[in-house]
Amino acid sequence: MTTETDSNSGVGGGANAGANTGVNGGVGNPAASEETGISAVSVTKLVKRYGDMVALDQFDLDVHQGEIFGLLGPNGSGKTTAINCILALLAYDSGTIRVFGQPMTPTSYALKRRIGIVPQNVAVLNELTVTENIDYFCSLYVPKKAERAPLVEEAIEFAGLQDFRRFRPGKLSGGLLRRLNIACGIAHKPDLIFFDEPTVAVDPQSRNAILEGIVRLNKAGATVIYTSHYMEEVERICDRILIMDHGRHLALGTADELKAMIGTGERITIETLDLTDDTLAAVRALGFVIEANYDGTQLDVRCGRGEHNLVDLLGVLRAAGASVGHLTSQPPTLNDVFLELTGKALRD
Residues 6 or more apart from 111 whose CB is under 8 A from it? Predict the structure, then answer.
């Protein structure tokens, strides 16, 4: 085995999902349409301690049905602990957790049948073929072979694994293995899917295919909770994003709303070959400049928010007689938000 099967199958499932529409044509339990206005996941004042260490500190989370929700934070921030508590895989000290409006407990089997998880560590059986792996994980919640067969076929087609049905995992590339991992996690058509860094160490083509697949699942009706250290992925597919650290909720909003919360403005880069130390000092003395660096060919300036940053910067360079070549001005990124809120870069 590549890893323990519990990490992929223990919380997913959908014995009741067998009658739902196919992966390509619709995901989700028909009952979900009756739950308008009810959050897919609601976490209130969650506290989890490991001895003297507080892993979750009055943590709040509210995921709307039908959205792709990004959950971000550095390693050790409490993301995994929060997810394990939500899935009732980990006991917690206080707080409340509801999934689709119902309390989540270790014996909430009806709720667990509506949840799928695609873990960061690939969880498949090396002894089985692609088809056999998907069939095995689906069988944990859809026991009847006749009901399961079309679900397995739909998952194979969804993941683009038609040409690899008889391959064992050891013969698959990293990207194909990730797609198999996803197919195993979504074959039962869950209403709520957790994706934990599903694109780690895959090539750009496979990453794009995975992201497009997640969007298709969401458009078909699934609510998605997505964690990643690739900020551009989160910005690309997530409707709302929560940044957490030290077990606490730091900020929540769309990518644009989060960017508006910070003081960082654009990043300006200018090609110049004759910038003197005095001119660089004059640039750094500008009130909006947070950081300015020069490598002999390019000036890189990180700015605070302002309406005339580029004009003022060019004014200093021209007054000093410095040459100005190609220049770019980029708005703040989600990574800038993360750095300002947590003070540290996302880590693998």
Answer: 99, 100, 102, 104
Express each pLDDT in 161-192 by its tens digit: 999 999 999 999 999 999 999 999 999 999 99
Q: What domains sit in the chain, N to C, each tagged with a CATH number?
A: 6-258 (3.40.50.300), 263-331 (3.30.70.1340)
Task: Indicate the pairing of strand 192-196 with strand 53-63.
Answer: unpaired
User: What global pTM score does this model have?
Assistant: 0.83
SS (H, E, C) the chain: CCCCCHHHHCCCCCHHHHHCCCCCCCCCCHHHHHCCCCCCEEEEEEEEEECCEEEEEEEEEEECCCCEEEEECCCCCCHHHHHHHHCCCCCCCEEEEEECCEECCCCCHHHHCCEEEECCCCCCCCCCCHHHHHHHHHHCCCCCHHHHHHHHHHHHHHHCCHHHCCCCHHHCCHHHHHHHHHHHHHCCCCCEEEEECCCCCCCHHHHHHHHHHHHHHHHCCCEEEEECCCHHHHHHHCCEEEEEECCEEEEEECHHHHHHHCCEEEEEEEECCCCCHHHHHHHHCCCCEEEEEECCCEEEEEEECCCCHHHHHHHHHHHCCCCCCCEEEECCCHHHHHHHHHCCCCCC
**148 CB-contact burial (10 Å; exposed 0-12 / middle 13-18 / buried 19+):** buried
Chain segment 249-301, per-residue pLDDT in tens: 999 999 999 999 998 899 999 999 999 999 999 999 999 999 999 999 999 99
Q: Nearest to residue 257, comparing CAs of 167, 348, 332?
A: 332
